[in-house]
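[job 4417] fold queue: 2 targets
>>> target A
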Amino acid sequence: MAHPVARYWNPTNLLAIWRGVRDSNYNKLLAPFFPYKRTVEEKVRTIKGYKNTNVILNLCDPDAKRTIRGARKLSFQDYEIPEFSEGIKIYASELREISRFVDQYGHLPESLDCLDQKYIDYLELMNGVGTNAEYFRAELLQYGKFQFRNRTDDGTFGMIQADFDADKEWANHNVYQAQADWEDPADDILADVDNLIEMFALQNDVQNDGKINGLMIMNSVTWARMKKSEALQEWLWNMRSTDPMSYFRNLGLSLMIDNQGFQSQLGGEHVSQTKFIRDGNVCLIPNMRLGNIICSESDLFRGMMRNQAKRPDVDYDDQTGTVVRTVESTDPDTIKTTIEAHIFPAFDKGMFERCCVLHPTHKTTRVDNTPVLKVNGDVQITADTVNVTPSEP
C-alpha cells in the first residue's frame, strides 16, 4: 500500500517540479553549444575525436594524472556510454514528521513545508546530470579530454579518461601557450590574444579581410587580468574608449564570462568549488552549435516509450531521458529516490578542429631565486645562465 506521502513525492510530481526550475535556476552557459540529444546508441565507438579519430578510453589514476599501464584494460568497441546514477532517501523519522503535517494541514501548502529540504536535495540530484554534462563540455573545449567515474570491464568502479586528441594533433595545432602568466599588467596580453585569434582564423579558414565571428570564453579572474593590461589600457586611450570589450568587438569577437562551477567534494566543513573554465584559460570557438550531449536511453525508458506505459514509481525527463524512480520500503518505512542518466559529449564532424584555446604560463621561483616558467608541467629556466661557484673538494 502506497505511503500517504507518495501523493506528493512521486516521479510525476518530482519531474514537474524539475521542469519548472531547470532553465531558470539550473541553466548552464555552455549548453547551447552542446545541447542534449536522445539516442538509442549505447556505445562510445561511434563518437569520434580530432579529425575523425577514435576516442580513446583509459583507466587512469586521478591523483597522478596519468594512465595506469599494465593494469586493467577497457574494451573500447563495447564500452557503454557512462551512467550517472545517484539517490536519496526519506527516512522513517522524516516520513512520520511529514505525515503529521499532512494530517494537520490537509491539502494546504503548509503540509509540504517538511518536504522543502528534500525537494532541494532532489533538485541538486537532478542538477548533477547537467553539472556532469557541463563539465564534459568545458573540459573538452579546454583540454580535449575529461575524466569520469564508471564501471570497468571487471565490474569494479574506476576513473576513466576519455581522450578526443589521442595523437596530440589538436594540442599541436589548436592550443596556444601564453608567453606570460598575465598577473603583471606589463605582460603583453594583447600579443597573446592576437596570436590566439590568428590561430583561430587559420583553423577556420578566415581570409585576411574576413570576419572572425568567434566567441571568446574565460572566467572573471582572467578577464580582470586582461582589463588591467597596460597594452589594452593604451589601446583604449588611443581609441578614446572606456569599454575593454570594444577591442574584441572590433575584431568581430563576442565575449562570455563564465564563473559557473561545481562542487568537487561532498560534505565536510570546507566544500571545494571548481570552476568549469579554469583561471588563465581562454577558449575561442565558433559562435554556433558544436555538437551534442548524447543521452543514451535505457531499456526501461525505451520500453515505456514504445508501449506508452505509465508507472506510478517510474517516470523520465523528456529532455535528457533521465529516469526517476521511487521505491517504498517497510520496516522501517522509507522512500528511496534514484535517478539514472547516460550522457557523453560528441562533436559534430569538423567542429573540434575549429576550436582553439589559450593556456596560461605559470611563473615560479627556484630555491636559488631563479625565475622559471612552468609550461604544461615542464619546468623551463627563463633567467640568464646562473653563475654557480663550484664547492671545494
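>>> target B
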Amino acid sequence: MLDGFMLLKAIGSADENDIKDCADFLEFTAETPARHSRHLGRVFLIAAVIAAFLAVTASAIGLSVYFKQQEKLRNDYHVEENQVANYKEYPVPETATDGLTILSCINDGEFYRVYAAISPISREEVGEYLEYLFSNNEAEPNKPLKNISISVNGEEWISPMPYGSDWNFPPEDFRGPERDSHGNILYDPNGEPIRRPKPEAIYRKYFNEAYDEESQAFSIDFMIYDGPITTEKPVALKACLCEAKYNEDGSIKSNEVVRELGSTVVEPARYKPLTLYFPEPLEVTNEDGDVHLIYDGMEISTTTIYLLMRSPEADYVYKYDPNMSGEELTEQAEYRERWQDLRWDIDTNITINFTDREPLYLNGAEASQYVDGVVRGVCLFEDITINVNNVESVSIGGQTIKVSDCRNSK
C-alpha cells in the first residue's frame, strides 16, 4: 500500500525522463522504449502516484459543492462563535457516490432541520421541480410536473426546498400586485400590496445557489415535525423523483414515483436547551376575565425558544370532538380566538437580553403543542443563532427576570 512517505519520495526524486515514461505508461502506448526496463518499478510507482492524484482531484471536484454548503451552513449559523450544540455536521463520503447525502442538521427539539444534497439530478429535472414549487402551473395549467419528495420512516412525505437563497430580490425581479379571483389587489398585514418574485427570477437564483452543474448536485433543506425525532432515534429518509398529475381544478390528482434518488439514515443531533423556570409564574387574564394564561418559563436553545405555559382552559381549546354540534363548534372557535388574542399580546412582547449582543425580540409563537398539561409555543429563529451561555435576562409581561433568579437555569 502506498503511504505518504513513499508518494513524496517517488515524486521528489523524479526527473524529466521519468515523467515522460509515466506519460507513455498511463497512455498505454503500443511501443515501450528499451530504457523503460531499467527502472520499470520506479516508473510504475510514479505513474501510480499521478493516477491516484488525478483520481483524487476528480473526486474532490464532485464533492466540493458539499464542502461549500457545509461551510455556508457553519457561517450562516455561526456554529463556532455561538457554540451551537444542537448542530451536527456529517462526514462527506470519501468518494463521490450517487444518492442522498446528508450534510448537516439542527435539532430544534420538536423540529428537525435537515440539509442535504441529491446527485445526480439533471438541470431539466431541477427546473421542473422549481416550477412545481413556485409557478402554481401558471404557464401550462394541469401539465404533469416532476418533483422531489422525501419519505420519513416510510410514512410521511415531505417536499424539500432548495437551499442557499436568502429570498432577497431586486425590485425589477418582482411582478405586479397579487390579485384574488375577482381582480382585487391583495394586501399584507402592513397594508402594502403583496408582490411576489417572477418565476424566472426564482429559478435563476436557485440555479446559481443550490445547483452545481458539474457534479449535478442539488442542495436542499427540509424539516421533520414531531415523531420519533424528538427521542433522538435514527430516522430513515428516502428521496424520490415523482411526477404530479393534476385535476381540472388544479388540485393534485396523484404523485407517482418515477425513480428513487437515494436513501440514508440520519442520526439526530442532541438537543441541549437552557431551561428557565421563573421564580413566580406569570399569570395574565383578558379583560372579560374568561381567559387565563400561566407562563412558567421557557426553554432556550441556540436556534429555538419554547414558551412553557399552562391554562385552565387549555383542555377545551385543544379539544377535538367530532360529535360536537354546529353551535358548540362555533362557541369553541370564538373562544379560541379570544384565547389566541391574549397569547398574541404576551408572546409578541418578549425580549431576550444578552451580555454580548443586542436584545432579541420575539414575534410570537409560530406553532404550539399541548402535551401533558403544558402548552409549548415554539419560536424559531430564521437566520440567526444565539449563545445560550450569554443570556442575561428575559423581559415578559412587563417585568424583567434574570437568569440567575430562575430555577433549573443550567
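[job 4417] complete. Note on B: The radius of gyration is 28 Å.
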